[in-house]
C-alpha cells in the first residue's frame, strides 16, 4: 500500500508538470488527479473484490482521501499552520487523522458486513490502525498536492506574464512604425526644403531631432548630458521662430558631455522661460543659461528679465512642482531646487548629484 501511495505521489508531480504546459485551470487539474487516483484504487482492488465491490470501496476511499486532503489544506493549514500556531496544527492534525481513520474504517466495515460478507467481521483496533496509517500517507500526499497546485498556478502566471510581455513588445513595435514613418517623411521634406530654403530645412532637421529624442531617449532612465544639451539647443532654436524680436540668449556649458543624468530634468526651466519669461511684443529680452559640472554635482541655472506676465504666472505653474516631485523620487532629499526674483531678473537654480 505504501509503495502504491508513493507511486501516486510521483504520478501527481509528473501529471502537474505536463498539465502546466496546457491551458487548464487548477480545478481541472484536481479533477484529473482524483480521477486517476480513483482508477488506480479501483484496479488495485478489482482482482480480489470484483467490479461492484471495487467501485464502492474505491469511491469511499477517494471520498475520505479528499476529506483528509482538503481538511488539511483548507482548514488546518489555513487556520493554524499559516498563522504560526504550530502546536495547535500538530494537535489538530493528529485528532483529525484519528477521527477520519476511525470513521472510514467503521463505514467500510459496515458496508462490507451489510452487503458483501458471508460472515460478519468485528470492528477492532487493527482495522482502525490500518485506516489511520493509510490516512497518514494521504495526509503527506496533501502536501505534495499543495506544492503541485502551487507550481501549476505559478507556471500559469509566468506564462501569462510572458504572453503579456510579448504583446507589449508587439504593441511597442507597432507604435514605432508611425514615428519612423513620420521621420522618413520629414527627411524627404528636409531634402526638398534644402534646395529651396536651407534655413527652413534646418528647422525641419531640429524638429526631427526633438521628435527622435522623445521617442528614443526620453523613455530611458539615463541619457548623456550631450544628448540633453542637444535637445535643449534644438528646442531653443525652434522657439526663436515664434518670437518676433531677437532674444539675447547665452548658454554656458562647463561639463562632461558623457555624464549620465535622467532625461527631461533640465527642460522645465527652459520651457518656463519661453512660456512666461519672454515678452514677445517687446525688444530687449535677455536669457542666461548655465550648466556647470563640479565634483559630484551638476548645477543648472537660468536667468531672464522679469516682466508682468511672469510675475503673475511663474509661481502658479505646475512645471516646477512636478519637477520637484520627480526629483524627490529620483534623489530623495539629495538635491536643491530654488526659484526667486532679484531686482528685474527671475532666477531658477537646480543642483543634483551625478555618478
TrEMBL record:
The chain crosses the membrane at residues 31-48, 54-73, 94-115, 127-149. It holds the Pfam family His_kinase. Residues 169-245 form the Signal transduction histidine kinase internal region domain. The lineage of its organism: Bacteria, Pseudomonadati, Bacteroidota, Chitinophagia, Chitinophagales. Coiled coil: none annotated. This is Signal transduction histidine kinase internal region domain-containing protein. Keywords: Membrane, Transmembrane, Transmembrane helix. PANTHER family: SENSOR HISTIDINE KINASE YPDA. Gene3D superfamilies: Histidine kinase-like ATPase, C-terminal domain. The keyword rRNA-binding does not apply. It comes from the Bacteria. It comes from Niastella koreensis.
Amino acid at each position: 500500500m505504501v509503495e502504491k501511495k508513493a507511486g501516486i505521489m510521483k504520478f501527481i508531480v509528473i501529471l502537474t508538470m505536463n498539465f502546466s504546459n496546457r491551458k487548464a485551470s487548477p480545478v481541472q487539474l484536481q479533477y484529473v488527479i482524483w480521477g486517476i487516483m480513483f482508477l488506480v484504487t479501483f484496479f488495485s482492488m478489482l482482482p480480489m473484490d470484483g467490479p461492484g465491490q471495487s467501485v464502492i470501496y474505491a469511491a469511499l476511499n477517494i471520498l475520505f482521501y479528499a476529506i483528509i486532503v482538503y481538511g488539511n489544506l483548507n482548514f488546518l493549514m489555513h487556520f493554524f499552520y499559516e498563522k504560526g500556531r504550530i502546536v495547535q496544527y500538530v494537535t489538530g492534525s493528529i485528532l483529525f487523522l484519528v477521527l477520519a481513520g476511525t470513521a472510514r474504517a467503521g463505514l467500510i466495515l459496515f458496508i462490507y458486513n451489510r452487503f458483501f460478507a458471508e460472515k460478519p467481521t468485528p470492528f477492532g483496533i487493527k482495522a482502525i490502525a490500518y485506516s489511520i496509517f493509510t490516512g497518514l500517507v494521504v495526509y503527506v500526499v496533501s502536501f505534495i498536492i499543495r506544492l503541485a497546485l502551487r507550481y501549476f498556478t505559478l507556471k500559469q502566471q509566468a506564462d501569462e506574464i510572458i504572453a503579456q510581455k510579448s504583446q507589449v513588445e508587439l504593441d511597442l513595435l507597432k507604435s514605432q512604425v508611425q514615428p519612423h514613418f513620420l521621420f522618413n517623411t520629414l527627411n524627404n521634406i528636409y531634402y526638398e526644403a534644402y534646395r529651396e530654403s536651407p534655413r527652413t530645412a534646418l528647422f525641419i532637421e531640429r524638429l526631427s531631432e526633438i521628435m527622435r529624442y522623445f521617442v528614443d531617449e526620453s523613455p530611458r532612465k539615463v541619457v548623456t548630458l550631450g544628448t540633453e544639451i542637444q535637445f535643449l539647443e534644438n528646442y531653443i532654436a525652434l522657439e526663436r521662430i515664434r518670437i518676433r524680436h531677437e532674444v539675447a540668449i547665452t548658454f554656458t556649458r562647463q561639463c562632461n558631455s558623457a555624464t549620465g543624468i535622467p532625461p527631461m530634468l533640465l527642460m522645465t526651466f527652459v520651457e518656463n522661460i519661453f512660456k512666461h519669461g519672454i515678452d514677445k511684443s517687446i525688444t530687449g529680452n535677455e536669457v542666461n543659461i548655465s550648466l556647470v559640472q563640479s565634483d559630484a554635482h551638476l548645477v543648472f541655472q537660468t536667468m531672464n528679465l522679469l516682466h508682468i506676465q511672469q510675475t503673475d504666472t511663474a509661481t502658479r505653474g505646475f512645471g516646477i512642482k512636478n519637477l520637484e516631485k520627480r526629483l524627490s523620487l529620483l534623489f530623495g532629499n539629495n538635491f536643491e531646487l530654488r526659484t526667486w526674483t532679484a531686482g528685474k531678473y527671475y532666477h531658477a537654480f537646480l543642483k543634483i548629484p551625478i555618478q
